[in-house]
Structures are given as structure tokens and as C-alpha cells.
Design goal:
Blueprint (H helix, E strand, L loop, with lengths): L3 H17 L5 H12 L11 H11 L6 H21 L4 H13 L3 H15 L1 H11 L1 H6 L10 H6 L3 H6 L6 H4 L3 E3 L5 E3 L5 H4 L8 H5 L1 E2 L14 H17 L5 E5 L6 H12 L2 E4 L12 H15 L5 E5 L31 H9 L4 E5 L7 H4 L4 E4 L5 H14 L6 H10 L4 H13 L4 H16 L24 H10 L6 E5 L6 H12 L3 E5 H4 L6 H16 L2 E5 L14 H16 L4 E5 L7 H4 L4 E4 L5 H12 L15 H14 L5 H13 L11
Parallel strand pairs: 4-7, 4-8, 5-6, 6-7, 9-12, 9-13, 10-11, 11-12
Antiparallel strand pairs: 1-2, 3-5
């Protein structure tokens, strides 16, 4: 159904076209036929009998005379003049006029946008273009909405030179991202422009609120990013200064693994600054995933709309969608400035967007290394977000549990934070799932384990504290462990490094965790299997991330199975084996906090690594006296004499034997316990190991 303004607009298009068409041209015949077919719909109230005869003759397939064409043209002009006196602009027309004022568009620009929008939403105008004006495509193979179209300027009543100027690379319509032109010259409007015509007639929303998507409120707090305090606070000052001065070209890159809170940081920053945050290119007008061209168009449109305000920030999530290294095989930018996809092209256009953005823009990426260097150099500041430290995780767990009405004590949240070294996103998803299962903490734990497995293949979490029955007297080392621990604690735990080697179960990791507990520090424990990757370069990235995580948390970093990460480079077969060791050595030298490596195969370590450790400690099997003491510690029984004959016992063997005895019911049977320990010794490889490096 046509409203009065749409009827006036159609009459305007018809009059403009009729003034340019010869009565015998195919275009004139198509236009006349369409008018006669839609006579009633257009409400053409005429008394001209001759025009009625012409209408009947066209139905019979007869040609129109020049006089009949002039009569039709005159009728359309009279109807248009009358419509102009009666019709008032509808909401779409008013919004387009506001857009023109906001973006300094000429009347010709508005006319182009209006016919594109109306044809998309109004079937009558779509029919007019398809039936009356698309004849040019059949005869001349030129599309209607194309920069080479001769019909479109006719219909709009715009001179051809002025029409073509609308689509130059530096013209407002193209430069602002409202329109783009593809390789074939077809004109495309940014999808979200359709919101101007699809929103209810009586809506009072202004153009900016219609065309831009305000980001949803964040769920994290400013203190949840205390582990990056220096960078976090610097970004706050930087963006605040850019907003107050209107300085262009301010771009902040927030990068890190998925789920680490990159988008949440941007939302939290905007809330702290008290400014509006608008997300760019998350979905098109149909709720679908926009392509690269559409996202880039929407970025330019948002920049232009928000430029005068100085009170807003833009968020572009997952920037790797459009900002990729040229070696990846595609470049989404052309040298002439049109935002259409090509297999190759100049980066100048993108660089200009970054350098000239009038609105501070926050970019997030899961893979910063995939972004080409020319783009990275144009970032004002970068922030890497890794998994938050335990103290932050504990706060997030507690808040999310409370938000979903899941009852948990402080000890519960502390246990979850220590047990699961996961991102805030994983924690939030697991808690939401647990709330659907009745708010059971067991369901939350089950959920987070399942998510960890599928996301990163994560293994059961490493212990963060010493074993329940850990006794320093049961550690046999080439130094006095009691005296060593006392001196380390007395020194205040200043920067030091440890390398502990020895048979499995001798207490290497437990000893480091004991030291951390005495020093009041958390433990960040990484196994080589957690860090090794099949992808070249990713192991090095994970090593760097582990050191960064320990720095952020202020914890002792422990690498288990370190011989896999620090293997002798003389036996390397592949270049990545060398670069992996080099990465470890580089971070070992510069890391400002205590860290330790444990290995069962100290002889396999690269010789250069040993010089990087402050202390090198070798652990060995228990002495007979220690074995008897361990028997009393683990079983609260006196050890039978045969225990002294077992020369390869470790504290780990006693822990395993106790678990077996609990199942078999032998906890009070000393001889059965001794037999379990003997079985553990016999299961070990039949060789002795020399103590020391």
C-alpha cells in the first residue's frame, strides 16, 4: 500500500523519465504500459477521454503517437503537482534528511539513497524499476543501479555529470561507507541503511541510534583486570585524552586467546569513562553474519556518524576478519578506495582508515600474529590479555555464582579458581549450565571440564599445593632440603631459579610447591604436554604466555617435564626444536620472579640451560631410614624390617600404595602394605640412577 509521500515520489520519477524518453522508444512503451497497469494503484483521476483510448490501444498492442505520449506526460505532471501540495514527508524521508545533515550530503546524494531504499522495501517502486526501467538492461545490458546506467540519472532528474560525481572515491557517499561500488560498477548500500525504512513510522529514534549498535553492558569489573594494571590504566588515560581533544587516529588493539575478556574489557573501559560504546559489523539487517566488505563499510559509516560527538568509542571485534597478512592469499581493499573484495590490492586505503579515524577505536583479535605489520604499526597501544591470575579468577567465579543464584562458600570459589585455570568465558558458560541443572557445584565442575577438553584439550589440572602428607624430611637431595628451604624463606624469596632432577615420585614438584607455600606465593604450573603444539611457532607462543601469566599473577612458575622443552640442541632435527629452546632460554634470563623446572632426565637437558639456573638440585630414592619414616607418615604403622631392603622407594610410591590399600582394605596390615611397596619397586626399570647432574 502506498502512502501519500510514496505516491508523490513515484509520480516524480515518472515525470522525470517521461521528459527524457522519445514516444517511440522501448523505454517510453515500457513506462506507459506500467502506468496503465497501475492506473488504479496510482489513483490517477483524469477525465481525458483520449488518454483512456490510448490506454485501451496499448492493451491491444498498438504503438503510441507523439500526441498520446505528450498527453500521458502532461497527466503525470498535473498529478505530481497536486500531490506535492497534499503529501507530507514520511518518517523515512525525514530520517534521510537528518542523515544528510549529519553527514553533509547533497540533495542528489539523498535522492540516490532514497530510490535504493524505497525499491528494496516498497513493492510498487520495485515493480516500477523491474518493469519500466529495467528495459535498458535487456536492450543495453546495463543494470539500473549501476554507475554506467543512463536511466537512473533520468529518473532522478539529475544531470549525468552530477550523477557520476556521486560515486567518486572521495565523494561523501562512498567515502563515508554508505555506498560502495563493485568491479562491475554496481552500486551497493550498506545493509544497515535499511533500518531507516524498516523501523516503525512513529519511532522517534534519531539516525545515529538507528544505524549504530550500542554494545551491551559488560559483566566484568575494572578490578577484574588488575593483572594488567599498568596497561589498563594507560589505555584509560589515552582514550580519555583522545575524547577530550578530538585527536584522530587513536586505535587500541586488545588481543589474546578466546574467552580471556577482550570484549568485556572494552565494555568495562567505556563504562568507566562514562561514554557510549558502539559495536561495528556484528550482524546485518537480517541478523546474519556480515561479510568483510559490509563490516568495513559499517566501520566507515560509524566513524562518520560519530565524528562530531566526541563522546563515543567504537568496538571492532575479531579484526582478523578484515585485517590479515597479505601472505594469507587475499586482501580486502582495492587501490581506488572502493570497499570490495579482491585477490590483491593496496593497503593504503586501510592505513588511511586507521590513521584518520575521528573516533577512538578498540580492536580485538584472537590472533594478533596474523595481522600484517603495516596495520600493527598504526596501533596507538596494544594490550595482551591472557588467562587471569587465581585471585582474579576467584573474584569472577564468586560473582558469577552469585549472579546465577548458585550457593557457594568462599572456600568453594577459592577451590574452583585454583582447580580450573580457565578463562572468564569458560567459567561463565559452565556456571550458566550448572544453574540449569539446579545450581549444583558438581554440575559446574563437570561443565567446565567438558568445555576445557573441547576448547584446548586440557588435561586434569596440576596440583597447586604440596601433597597432604608432604614431609620435607622425606626428600632426599644432594643439599639439605630443610636448611635450603629455610634460607630461601629468610631471604624473602627474591628472584631465583631452580632445576630439580631425579626419578619420578621423589618430590620435585611437591618441593617447589612447598617453597611457594612458605613464601606465600601461588604456583603457576605448566607441563610440557600443555605447551607443546603441532603448529610451528605455537609452542613458543605458549611458553611466552606462561611467563606472562606468572608475571601477572606474581607466582612461582613451574615447568614439569622440562627436558621436553630444554632438550639438547645438538640432537635437534628440525629448526623449531632449536627455536623452542631459544625461546625458553630468553625468557629464563629476563623473568623477574622465581621459577623452577623439574625433569626425570636431567642428562637430556641442553648444557646451556644449566647455567641459567641459580640452584640445581638432584633428588634420589629414599634411604632406609627415610623409608621407615615414610611408612609411619603414610600408614601410621611401624615399618616391617623388609622395607629396608627396598632401595628404589619414593614418597610417590607410598602415596600409590596407600590408595591401593584403601581400596583393598589393607591399611592396618603392615605386611600387605610392604608387599604393595615391593610391587611398586619391581615395576620400575631395572637400573640404578646416579645422583646429581
Amino acid at each position: 500500500m502506498l502512502n501519500a509521500y510514496e505516491r508523490q515520489l513515484i509520480l516524480f520519477y515518472l515525470c522525470n523519465a517521461a521528459a527524457r524518453f522519445h514516444h517511440a522508444s522501448p523505454e517510453a512503451r515500457e513506462l506507459a504500459d506500467w502506468v496503465f497497469e497501475n492506473y488504479d494503484l496510482l489513483a490517477l483521476e483524469v477525465e481525458d477521454k483520449k488518454l483512456g483510448e490510448c490506454r485501451a490501444s496499448r492493451y491491444d498492442g498498438k504503438e503510441m503517437s507523439a500526441r498520446e505520449w505528450q498527453r500521458l506526460w502532461k497527466t503525470l505532471e498535473n498529478e505530481y503537482s497536486a500531490a506535492c501540495e497534499e503529501a507530507q514527508e514520511d518518517s523515512t524521508a525525514r530520517r534521510l534528511q537528518q542523515l544528510g545533515r549529519e553527514m553533509d550530503l547533497a540533495p542528489e546524494d539523498i535522492a540516490v539513497l532514497e530510490i535504493m531504499l524505497r525499491s528494496h522495501r516498497q513493492p510498487v517502486i520495485e515493480s516500477l524499476i523491474d518493469s519500466a526501467f529495467e528495459c535498458g538492461r535487456r536492450h543495453y545490458r546495463r543494470r539500473f543501479f549501476n554507475v554506467t546506467s543512463y536511466l537512473l540519472p533520468y529518473v532522478l532528474g539529475v544531470p549525468a555529470s552530477s550523477f557520476h560525481a556521486r560515486f567518486a572515491a572521495d565523494a561523501p557517499l562512498v567515502k563515508s561507507g554508505i555506498l560502495s561500488v563493485d568491479d562491475d560498477g554496481d552500486i551497493r548500500a550498506v545493509n544497515r541503511l535499511l533500518r531507516l525504512i524498516s523501523v516503525l513510522e512513529d519511532s522517534d529514534l534519531d539516525v545515529c541510534r538507528l544505524l549504530l549498535d550500542a554494545a551491551t553492558s559488560g559483566e566484568l569489573e575494572w578490578s577484574d583486570f588488575d593483572h594488567v594494571t599498568e596497561d589498563r590504566d594507560h589505555i584509560e588515560k589515552l582514550v580519555k585524552g583522545a575524547l577530550s581533544t578530538g585527536t584522530p587516529g587513536v586505535n587500541i588493539l586488545v588481543y589474546g586467546p578466546p574467552g580471556t575478556g577482550k570484549t568485556e574489557f572494552c565494555k568495562t573501559l567505556a563504562a568507566r569513562l562514562g561514554t557510549n560504546l558502539y559495536s561495528v559489523g556484528e550482524e546485518d539487517e537480517r541478523g546474519r553474519d556480515p561479510d568483510r566488505r559490509e563490516r568495513l563499510q559499517e566501520l566507515r559509516l560509524a566513524q562518520r556518524l560519530l565524528a562530531p560527538s566526541r563522546g563515543s568509542i567504537l568496538l571492532f571485534d575479531e579484526m582478523e576478519d578484515i585485517l590479515s597478512d597479505p601472505s594469507s592469499g587475499w586482501m580486502p581493499f582495492s587501490p581506488n578506495g572502493f570497499s570490495y573484495l579482491r585477490s590483491s590490492g593496496s593497503k593504503v586505503f586501510l592505513n588511511r582508515i586507521l590513521e584518520c579515524t575521528p573516533v577512538p577505536t578498540l580492536w580485538t583479535s584472537n590472533a594478533a600474529r596474523e595481522i600484517c605489520q603495516t596495520v600493527l604499526r598504526r596501533m596507538t597501544f596494544t594490550l595482551e590479555l591472557c588467562k587471569p591470575p587465581c585471585r582474579v579468577r576467584e573474584r569472577i567465579w564468586g560473582r558469577e555464582l552469585a549472579r546465577h543464584n548458585i550457593k557457594a562458600t568462599e572456600e568453594d570459589t577459592r577451590s574452583l579458581a585454583k582447580e580450573f585455570d580457565v578463562t572468564p568465558g569458560v567459567a561463565s558458560s559452565a556456571i550458566a549450565g550448572g544453574s540449569l541443572c539446579g545450581g549444583d557445584l558438581a554440575a559446574v565442575r563437570l561443565g567446565v571440564r567438558s568445555l576445557s577438553r573441547v576448547i584446548s584439550g586440557e588435561k586434569p589440572p596440576a596440583n597447586q599445593g604440596p601433597p597432604e602428607r608432604f614431609d620435607l624430611a622425606l626428600v632426599r637431595a644432594d643439599i639439605d632440603p630443610v636448611g635450603f628451604a629455610g634460607r630461601i624463606v629468610k631471604s624473602g624469596g627474591k628472584h631465583f631459579s631452580l632445576c630439580l632432577q631425579g626419578p619420578p615420585g621423589t618430590g620435585k614438584s611437591a618441593f617447589v610447591r612447598y617453597l611457594a607455600e612458605r613464601l606465600g606465593l601461588q604456583v603457576t604450573q605448566k607441563r610440557a604436554s600443555d605447551l607443546m603444539s603441532m603448529w610451528v611457532g605455537q609452542t613458543e607462543q605458549r611458553i611466552a604466555a606462561a611467563f606472562a601469566e606468572a608475571r601477572a599473577e606474581g607466582s612461582i612458575l613451574v615447568f614439569d617435564e622440562a627436558d621436553s622443552l630444554l632438550a639438547d640442541r645438538q640432537g635437534a632435527v628440525h629448526s623449531w626444536e632449536v627455536s623452542q629452546v631459544n625461546e625458553m632460554l630468553t625468557w629464563m634470563e629476563s623473568h623477574p620472579l622465581p621459577f623452577a623446572c623439574t625433569t626425570n632426565f636431567g642428562e637430556n637437558l641442553d648444557p646451556a640451560t644449566l647455567r641459567r639456573f641459580t640452584f640445581k638440585i638432584a633428588l634420589d630414592y629414599l634411604t632406609p631410614d627415610q623409608s621407615q619414616a615414610a611408612f609411619r607418615t603414610y600408614f601410621s604403622l611401624e615399618a616391617p624390617p623388609e622395607i629396608g631392603n627396598l632401595t628404589t622407594l619414593t614418597p610417590g610410591d607410598f602415596a600409590v600404595a596407600r590408595r591401593k590399600a584403601e581400596i583393598l582394605g589393607h591399611l592396618q596390615d603392615a605386611k600387605a602394605l610392604a608387599e604393595l611397596l615391593r610391587a611398586e619397586c619391581e615395576a620400575k626399570p631395572n637400573h640404578s640412577r646416579k645422583m646429581g647432574f
